[in-house]
Amino acid sequence: xxxxxxxxxxxxxxxxxxxxxxxxxxxxxxxxxxxxxxxxxxxxxxxxxxxxxxxxxxxxxxxxxxxxxxxxxxxxxxxxxxxxxxxxxxxxxxxxxxxxxxxxxxxxxxxxxxxxxxxxxxxxxxxxxxxxxxxxxxxxxxxxxxxxxxxxxxxxxxxxxxxxxxxxxxxxxxxxxxxxxxxxxxxxxxxxxxxxxxxxxxxxxxxxxxxxxxxxxxxxxxxxxxxxxxxxxxxxxxxxxxxxxxxxxxxxxxxxxxxxxxxxxxxxxxxxxxxxxxxxxxxxxxxxxxxxxxxxxxxxxxxxxxxxxxxxxxxxxxxxxxxxxxxxxxxxxxxxxxxxxxxxxxxxxxxxxxxxxxxxxxxxxxxxxxxxxxxxxxxxxxxxxxxxxxxxxxxxxxxxxxxxxxxxxxxxxxxxxxxxxxxxxxxxxxxxxxxxxxxxxxxxxxxxxxxxxxxxxxxxxxxxxxxxxxxxxxxxxxxxxxxxxxxxxxxxxxxxxxxxxxxxxxxxxxxxxxxxxxxxxxxxxxxxxxxxxxxxxxxxxxxxxxxxxxxxxxxxxxxxxxxxxxxxxxxxxxxxxxxxx
Amino acid sequence: xxxxxxxxxxxxxxxxxxxxxxxxxxxxxxxxxxxxxxxxxxxxxxxxxxxxxxxxxxxxxxxxxxxxxxxxxxxxxxxxxxxxxxxxxxxxxxxxxxxxxxxxxxxxxxxxxxxxxxxxxxxxxxxxxxxxxxxxxxxxxxxxxxxxxxxxxxxxxxxxxxxxxxxxxxxxxxxxxxxxxxxxxxxxxxxxxxxxxxxxxxxxxxxxxxxxxxxxxxxxxxxxxxxxxxxxxxxxxxxxxxxxxxxxxxxxxxxxxxxxxxxxxxxxxxxxxxxxx
Lengths: 581, 277
Fold this sequence. Notes:
Helices cover 22% and strands 21% of the residues of chain A. Chain A contains 11 helices and 25 strands. Chain A has helices at 17-28, 53-58, 112-115, 117-125, 143-157, 183-194, 245-251, 300-309, 407-415, 460-480, 547-567; strands at residues 3-4, 8-13, 33-36, 71-74, 82-83, 106-107, 199-201, 203-204, 211-212, 218-219, 255-258, 261-269, 272-280, 286-296, 327-331, 339-343, 359-362, 381-386, 420-427, 436-444, 450-455, 484-487, 503-506, 523-524, 527-532. In chain A, the strands form 6 sheets. In chain A, strands 1, 2, 3, 11, 12, 13, 14, 24 and 25 form a 9-stranded mixed sheet that branches. A 6-stranded antiparallel sheet of chain A has the order 7-17-18-19-16-22, covered by helices on one side. In chain B, helix 3 (70-83) packs across helix 6 and helix 6 (162-181) crosses helix 8. The chains are: A alpha+beta, B mainly alpha. The interface between A and B is large, with 91 and 79 residues.
C-alpha cells in the first residue's frame, strides 16, 4: 500500500525545461508544488573538473540507465519490435534538470508555417500537395500567439544571438548579443553571404556575456571550453534548468523537488486526475502524491508511457487511424542532420575549442522560405555549421575511401583531426498514420510494466528532403573551399538508432479532440486537470532544433494551469473535424 | 579550480616533431618497439613492464583485471596494434596502453552491460543480423553527431555482455589463426593478422553467439577510445595519443583564442592536471 502524502495544488513530473518552467511559474504564483524527478540530484559542482570525453560522450554518463527500462522499436506495424538495449542506440537525458542539462544550446523559434502546416500548405499548393497518410496538422495555436512565450523563455534562458534576416516578427531582440565567431563560423557566414544567402550566428544558450535573468538568476559568459553538449556546464555559462528555473522554483519556498522519484502511474477517478503514484528508487517505497492538477512535463517517451500505463485517453490504432494517445510519433533523428563533410588541406582550425551552439546558420531553405511547387516534399529546415569543439576521440573523421583501421586510417585521422567540418540540414519531419507509439506486448520494465514501443518508418518525404538538403550543403562546402567533400548518404530505412534525443509526438496539440490529445494550453481534452507538456505535444517536427519551442510551450502551459486553478473546466472550446478536411 | 591556461607562445609554429623533441617526449617511441618485440617473442616478459622513461606513469595500474588468461590478453594486444599501428607519426595501440584500457573497460560497468537493457527474450536470428552487418557510420548523424566517435552501426541483440563478446572474439581470432595458418594469432605476420581481422570486419569470421562484425566493431571502437581517452583510463599513455593529434586535453577557457586564425599547439594536460591534484 502506497504511503499517502499531503495533497498539494500541483504535482509536476519531470524537471527539465518543461517541468522546470511549469514548477517555477506556479510556485512564483503562490501555489504549492511538488516536482518529481526520476534521476538523482545534481548541481554545477558535479561538473567542475570532469571534462572527460570518454565518460560523458562515449559512455553516456548523463543519459538514462536503460537496465531497468528502455523502449522497443520496429519499422512496420506487422513487425515484432526489439528492445533498444544500449545507450549507443538510444539516448535520453535524466537527473535533475533532465535532458535540458546536457543540451547543446542551439536556439531557434519555429516558423508560422510550422504551427499551421496543414492549412498553409493547402492554401499555397493545394490539397493534393499532402500525400495520403501524411497526418500533419495545425497546432491549434499560431506563431503570433506563441511569440510572447518564446520571448519569455529566451529571457529566462539569456539566449545570445542576432536576428535571423529571414526570421519572423519578434517583440524583442535576444537578451544578449551573439557569441564570438571562430574562423570556421566566419568562413561559413562569409561564404553563404557571397552565395546570396542570409546567414546569421546560431542563437545560443551558451551566454555571450554575464547576465541576470528576470527571475534574478545569474549566468556567466561562456569560455568555449567545448565540454558542452553531453555535459553539464561547470561555469553556469550554458543556460539550463539547474541555473534558472529550478533555483527560481526553490527560492519561493512553495516548491518541493524530490529526486530519485520515479512516477509510475497517474491516478484518476471519475474523469479527473487525483495525483500520481511514485517509487523512491533508493528504497523501493511507494508514495501517492495527491494534487488538484497533475502536470506531465517529462521526456516525450515518459509522457506517452505514463498515460498508456494509467489508461488515460484512447490509444491510437493505426489500422483504424482512430484514437489520440500515441498518435503522430515524429522526431529529428537518424535521417535528419545529413549534409556534407569537407576536408581542408590548406586550412587548420582550432577545433578543440568550441561551444554547443557556436555556429553559423541560414534559413533560406527553412519552412516555406522557398518555393515547393516543383519539389517532392513539404516544409524545410535550417542549414548549420557548428563548432562544438571536438575532443580526441570524436575528431576521427576521415575522407571516404580511407580504410576504417590500420596505418592509412591512423595517418588520415591524425592529418584531418583539425581540418574537417560539417555543414548539415536540419529538416522538419512530417507525421504519418504508420508512425506511432503504444505499449509493447512482450518486453517489460523492472516492475513488470510494459515498455513503450515505437513504430517508425521512412517515407519518400524523408528521403527527398534529406537529399535536397545534402545537395545544398555540398554546394556550400564547395564554395567554402573544401578539397574533399563527402556527401552523406540517405538511408533507405530506419535502423533503430535513436540519436540525439529529439524524439517527439504521441500526445499532440490541436484544435480537434478527434485528432489531438491536448488543447493549446497543453490541457488534456479528456481530463481537464491533467496537462501534458513537452516535445510529446508536437503534431509534427519543425525545421529547427526544438528546445525553445518546448520552453515556450511550458510557459503557455503554466499560464493554462494557473487559469484552470482559478476558473476550472476546459480552457479551450473544441473544434470538431475542421482540420482534417 | 585551476587557472585558465593560455597557449605557450614559444610552441606556436613549431613542428610537432620539434615540439616533442624539445619536451623530451620522443623517448616513449623507443620503449614501445622493444615492448612489442617482447610480446611477440617472450610471453614471460610482462607487457607494459615499467621502464625508466615511464617513471611518471601510473604503471602500478597496468595489470589485467578482466582477462584472466595472459594468452588472451596478448592476442587482444596484437589485434589492437594492427588496428592502430606504431608508425613514424607516433606510438601504436600497445605502446599507448590500449590493451590495458580495454581490459579495464571490460572489468567495469560498461563491460558488464550494467546500464543496458539485458532482459529477454533475445532474438539471435536474421532479424538482428542485418543491423550488425551495416557498414554505415551511424554516429555521423544526429544533433550530437559531431561529438561521437564514428563507429559502424550495430543493433545489440545478444544476452552476452561486452566482456563475453571480447572473450569469445579473442578466442575466435586464435581459432581462425590455427585453422588458416596453423599457428598462434600473435605469432602471425602482420599481413596475416590483417587478413583475419579483415574477415571479422566483413562478418566472415566465426564468433560464438554474435556476428564477427559485432566483436570487431567493439574492438575497433575501444581501440580508438583507448588511444585518445584521458590517460586515467589506462590508454593514451603519457598523453602520446593527444600529442599526435595536437589535442590539448581539458581546459577551462579558450575565450582569448577562439577568434584566432592560426592553429595553436598547446602542451597537453590531463584530467589529473586539470583537477589540480
